[in-house]
Design a protein that fits this description.
254 residues; five-stranded mixed beta sheet; alpha/beta
Length: 254
Amino acid sequence: MCQLSKKESGNNILSIDIGGTSIKACILSSKGDLLSEFKKLPTPKNSTPEEVIKTIKELVSSLEDSFDRISIGFPGYVKCGKVETAPNLAKNKWTNVNLAQQVSNLFNRPVRLINDADQQALGIVSGIGFEIVFTVGTGFGTALVFDGELLPHFELAHLPVTKTKDYDDYIGTKAFEKIGKKDWNERLQRIIQIYKTVFNYDTLYIGGGNSKHITFELDHNIHLVTNKDGIKGGAKLWEVAEKYHVYTTRPNDK
């Protein structure tokens, strides 16, 4: 069980989005306004914790604005600031990695680290009813939100969808490149139908790099979103209460 921390006060927020293809960063105001350019670098091929932190350091050095707090969205399962899984980064290198503490110590700022789809969801959802966010990119990300409150994270991408494939395998970039746009769209439609039946959501949002390839007509309560739509999530993360997987990590005393 995590020990909850006192609420921080401060202004500008460094928002970082770690993905299987690229790592992005920008500076936000406490209200989520973009104060810097949205910078990105390719995710290192050898995407170990050390290499990812090195890339983050390089990204941040190119941002001119100062910041008081840090938000990080990570493509895997995160608990109390520690990474437990990272299926689309370096294999067998991300178990029980205290990434939040390392970044907090590096910049001497408090850090909140959550799943990347969860962080994006905070910037996208309306706050009304049961809302789900999909990210279709390198893998398949999901976030669940009820009346604006982020629910506990589930790695639904790793549920089996066929006898041999989970959702990551079935709808990720490797699958898209292998089967082509037409079959990929058919697979996404099947996933949407499964979620409609299982979750009976009020609204579904679909983002991620491959969402631009969607060719079928969407239901009235399904909306396409972009990375820019989710930018405010980095600021929203500091507005929510510490609960479930939202946890504040502070720099160690030097």
